[in-house]
Amino acid sequence: MTPSASNRPAGHALVEALIAQGATTVFGVPGESFLAALDGFYEHRDRIRFVACRHEGGASYMAEAQGKLTGRPGLCFVTRGPGASNAAIGVHTAFQDSTPMILFIGQVASSQRDREAFQEVDYRQMFGPGTLGFAKWAAEVHDPDRLPEYVGRAFHVAMQGRPGPVVLALPEDMLAAATSAPVLDRIEPALAAPAPAALARVHDLLLAAERPLAIAGGSGWSAHACESLERFAESWQLPVGCAFRFHDVFDNRHPNYAGDVGIGINPKLAARIRDADLIVAIGPRLGEMTTSGYELLTPPKARQWLVHIHAGADELGRVYAADLAINSSMACAAPALATLAPPATLRWAGWTASAHADYEANQVPTPVAPLDMAEVVRCIDRHVPADTIFTNGAGNFAGWLTRFHRFAGMRHAGRTHLAPTSGAMGYGVPAAVAAALLEPHRTVVNLAGDGDFLMTGQELATAIAHGAGRGAGKLVSIVVDNGTYGTIRMHQEREYPGRVSGSDLGNPDFAALARAYGWFAGERVETTAAFEPALVAALAADRPALIHLRLDSDVSTSRTTLTSIRRNAEARRGKTTRPS
Ligand SMILES: Cc1ncc(C[n+]2csc(CCOP(=O)(O)OP(=O)(O)O)c2C)c(N)n1
Q: How far apart are alpha carbons 265 and 51 in whole angstroms?
């Protein structure tokens, strides 16, 4: 602890505490409820910046992206009821994505508590902790002298075990009160490690297996842990798939890479997982999206032998009774796995080679005219550096990115994919802005659907106001405008063919909108050929750039069209197919 020299407002002490934890940037929308903290940011403006956003949803997404990118808690400041309500989406995302994050909420003055004072909410109730809740821990700080204790615990809880969001409510009088509270030293999470007996059991299971497959994912990976995973995969010649939204844990260009285990999974990889006799799940929650609706592995006891390694003790055994459950951080588990000595010959070299061959074959697209999204992704890959950070929210459009882009593993580049496991629309634009602000030397590409984009498109203003995308790294947002909430339309055509309800969109001219915010934007792109020059111009711009793509709404996914989905659904129902 650093002894404090003198009394200062608790709002200042709070900012000092964040700086001591290594924070240089926080995201938020101001409120009169935390003026003393805002004054603390002013006081320490040479060491930490407050990025003022245009909506708390955008701010909380930015903080969540900061948590994903840095592995330390992303930091967000919002005001009472309205601000906290808007910020809830980022907290939920951090919970489902196991991302360390702290949401600070200005609270009504202590003298007004429990009167339903202006904008008063009980945040312990609203975000209350639980395994299906929003936050890992929610608390309110009443005594300025106890700020170090609360902030310290918030950092611990956010990073410890399965990382996640913490909510701290800060009554305005508490923030304004003087304190001589000291500042805590930097907090690091305690790292659980696999026991030697557990490692020996992994070794035995591997020796007994004939068709093993590793699924890597979850949070808490570092470059060193990813490198160790690669060594483990190489020495045991294991095929490795990446869990939903954790495409960058294993280098997609590696010969052992088998593909992503998520929405739109390669059917051959799905079949391979079903057929495997040993699954070594290293880090991921075995959630609905990673298990294709709990079907690739069937709960509670999977057909395959299952080794589940997870940083959160509560996550183990929650859905699956694993044959071997190991409570370990990735920082300790991956290097430990890398020490396991393989036998002289392995039985499954052909199995691993064919897993990668399946992945390669799945990269061959079916040509689409006039705008081919697979070619768009390939073109992006030709023009941007390998360490480019890609961001997206939720929608079918993301399927082209995850199917055709080869994410460089974190071992080479740090995180290269920021996307919500929670399937939260609107994530991609704020995540891209946050990434561009936090890592200005890296290029950031956001792929957004038209529905996705307009949920948080106002954060284009935040990018301009704070100088994002003006350094060596570029910031490009690509909007896939198909005039529909296409994912929902796809589900409708499958379940209620031909009955379009609530999924059509009326769209603005996205390029004109971007220009109004001060972004660069060229002509709308309607053909594959027009994309490359548009991208080159966007990457050459001296400011953030947006590319507006027009995609035929019938092109539903990288594998099928709405017409085909509707025809299949009608055929299933024994109806006559209408001419389209
Ligand atoms: C915040 C939020 N609201 C609603 C949904 C449900 N939802 C999932 S995908 C989707 C449509 C996405 O549309 P768009 O961004 O245009 O992408 P497309 O599917 O057309 O490619 C909706 C409404 C969601 N996942 N998140």
A: 37
